[in-house]
Amino acid sequence: MGSLESGIPPAKREGGERWARQHHPLLQRNRSRSFLFKRFSYIQWICSTCVFFFFVVLFQMFLPGLVIDKSDKPPWRSIEKELLPPDMLVFKERGVLSFGEDVRLEPTKLLMSFQRDAQNSSGGFNTTVQRFGFRKPKLALVSSFADLLADPEQLLMVTVSNALLEIGYAIEVYSLEDGPVHGIWQQMGVSVTVLETNHASSCVIDWLSYNGVIVNSLEARSMFTCFMQEPFKSIPLVWAINDEILAVRSRQYSSTGHTELLTDWKKIFSRASVVVFHNYLLPILYSEFDAGNFYVIPGSPKEAWKAKNMDFPRKDDIVISIVGSQFLYKGQWLEHALLLEALRPLFSGYNSESYNSHLKIIVLGGESASNYSVAIETISQNLTYPKDAVKHVSVAGNVDKILESSDLVIYGSFLEEQSFPEILMKAMALGKPIVAPNLLNIKKHVDDRVSGYLFPKENPKVLSQIVLEVITEGKISPLAQNIGLMGKTAVKNMMAVESIEGYATLLENILKFSSEVASPKDVQTIPPKLREGWSWHLFKTARSYEFIANVEGHWNQTSGDSTKSRVVNDDSFVYEIWEGERYIQTINSKKRQEDEEAEPCSIRGLGRKYIKAKRADRSKNDLHERDEGELERTGQPLCIYEPYFGEGTWSFLHEYPLYRGVGMSVKGRRPGMDDIDASSRLSLFNQPYYRDALGDFGAFFAISNKIDRLHRNAWIGFQSWRRPPGRYTHLLLLYSGMICPVLITTCNESLSEIAENALLNAIKTRKHGDALYFWVRMDKDPRNPLKKPFWSFCDAINAGNCRFAYNETLKKMYSVKNLDSLPPMPEDGDTWSVMQSWVLPTRSFVEFVMFSRMFVDSLDAQMYEEHHRTNRCYLSLTKDKHCYSRVLELLVNVWAYHSARRIVYIDPITGLMEEQHKQKDRRGKMWVDWFGYTTLKTMDEDLAEEADSNDRRVGHWLWPWTGEVVWRGSVEKERQRKNVEKEEQKKRSKDKLDRMRRKSHRQKAIGKYIKPPPENANVTTLLNADA
């Protein structure tokens, strides 16, 4: 046993094997022969494989170039042996008989996002959320009536919009040009607003007031300038594209050096939430622009529109056209062979000598550059067709011409496509009788022997019987002609149901409605009259594509001057201008510095006051913090701040001294203006989370932080940017065939000059004392069409949880365990302020901010964890990054009412003032003890002391980040800190002097310098001595 474990026997076996190989050459010869046999078999196998692949490649070379489209579906089932012609059985046995795989185009990313949103919409909250549905969902349709002519795309949008109105949507149309389609919109009760050309690329419309936007043309490209800027980037946008002109021209951009134009188009395509096409070929043509947002809604009246007024001359020849799928696949040649085999009985009485070209067959398919014509000619010769009876024509540019000259159209593709073949729609619209296999999407829209002929795809022999019935005595039979006319009638409204349902379903998936918006009804509730057909009217059919050429021409002119891609051609606020302005400022600053260094010492020795003034002037030019507007505001009693976020809001802001902008983000600040940077005043707004969650309310915290350094006016006001630019917006309204200028205003109106003067006069004379002035009423807010009272309206815009949020927040804020009721907000017929547009004394504003900081901190403490992690809160039905803003929008009313401030409404147009909720009627209803200054100041100092101590609370705490931390102890601490710094400075100076005195290697003086006497002095001395 020990020897078995020692490993010696294997060594002996190796020696034995070596001995055997040396002493038995027969064994060695057999091993060599076996190796040669194996080597020969391996080489033979390689050669056989190479020969096999050689013949496969050779066989493929004589077939047309094919494109194989793969799908998840199984391939089409093989034809039964007994139904195949005898000469085709060999292909069946060899496995060559395959008609390709079914073509599928699935928007995977979009479908996954829809599914994800559907799962998240049922998120679990401890608090129940509910929808009130006070107003309809609003859609904006941006269209372009190009060249004052209508087109089938407009017909499609009119039909879809009519159905959307029926299920509960409210639609407003914006057009870049006037056109005759306004009569349709007028009958539907939809207003049409024509934007001026110079406003097309600027943001003059508050798109946030709409739940979604539908763009219906390539010509609306300039409108994307606004949609690609904040705060309009998040608006759901559907872009419907029904033309292939851009896809065709985009192939030339790279070869001609228009890479910037190509990049610009890609940016625009990526901005759209969904890009909608009406067939499955367009997404492939536009694949270069695909950003994962392509979606197909099949159906368009385009073919019926084009063919409705066409007439065809009579001819003696009978032309049969064999058409197929718009996609190329490997089994196409076999399908054409089967069809030609089925059509051979038509030529039973003809031969090559007697054939007089009365009957012709045209095979439409393949490309002109391919060798498919040779394959069709070979097949026809093998089937003994007369010469020139069968002809192949490529698809490119020949479809319409061939169909117009055809008498019978046979659809020869056996692929199950996702929608009704568009080429069959063309043929039916032209009144041609069609014959097609009974595929699922074909028999869904074509009734056999009513609007067309169908044959089973498993039995192509039935096609021979149908063709012999259609063509009798060298002519198309009367029955076939009637079926062609029936097909023309059927195609007129074909796929309208699919299109309407597709748009309704898409909008249902991408639009997110707030709680005060009613959910649209189910699409099945639309009356059949509106759902089962297009809204046909007599329109002209001409259409121009000059827009694409104009865009390319503009890029040709500017390609040499620009090194960066630009989004819009006529945008006046482009980044290149900002960079140029910043570069000029830098050069001027360096030049001033060089000039100062080169000045003589007499000029550099000016007083300190002049140097400080010069430095202040330099900083003013560089940072835009001080200018003439600020100097004018210094003498005014009021300054109104306008919070904004993003370049899209610039055209809504005022530019005269009474107003001043507050940029919530550094990137979106207006160049050349003295706007305030909220993030530099309060580091909290460097976090996008709180910038979005607080919204415009965050500007209150930024302004109040060390307010004495910024705001020196007795009164302070705020106004939301969400209103027309200036005071009103001058737009053109189409009405009764006339273009009428109108003034468009929104819920958040700005103060007119009369109202501004009335407000300033009331402030100067202290007409109402310590009062809250506001000019946007809650009872006129579009979100409150039913004029609900305060708490009901607050619940409606906060998913039914406004009262719960106030109750929980006040309990946490005041450290109260039970709060049986909320602060009463009476229903006395008066109204309240909304949209953060009001004015207060500066001292009262600071007190309001002190209250707001504690309120927001308590609100954030109960929502932050869930909302920051999932972007969901119980104040919204869907994901919402502006969760806190709607509750805080109404907070100023609660504070002003219960702190005994007078509340005055000022009409924004006339300036008339009316006091709301008079103080004498509030007695016994106000919670003065809760909202009084003494109570709030004590609570504020307690929080400041806690934040300033070493025992501050652990974890997330928002309050110290919303403003200054000031209490009695902090003042004493500041004084002590300054004293310590002063003592340390004295000590450092004293130590420095001591070190200087202790230095022992100080250099000794060389000696005194004695000035020699002048020479004439010595001569005078000698003369006196001689005398």
Structure notes:
- This protein is of the alpha/beta class and about 1050 residues long.
- It is about 40% helix and about 10% strand.
- Helix 16 (about 420-430) crosses helix 19 (about 480-490), helix 32 (about 800-815) packs across helix 33 and helix 33 crosses helix 37 (about 935-950).
- The longest helix is centred in the N-terminal third of the chain and has 37 residues, at about 25-60.
- The model is unreliable at about 1-40, about 60-100, about 540-545, about 560-580, about 600-615, about 620-625 and about 725-750 (pLDDT under 50).
Order of strands, main sheet, comes to: 7-6-5-4-1-2-3-20-21
Q: Which value, in Å, is the CA radius of gyration? A: 42 Å
Protein structure class: alpha/beta
- Total helices: the number is 39
How would you characterize the largest beta sheet? 9 strands, mixed
Strand content: 5-15%
Overall 3D form: elongated
Q: Tell me the span between the first and last alpha carbons.
A: 148 Å
Unreliable stretches covering 5 or more consecutive residues = 1-40, 58-98, 541-547, 559-578, 599-614, 618-625, 724-748
* Number of DSSP-assigned strands: 25
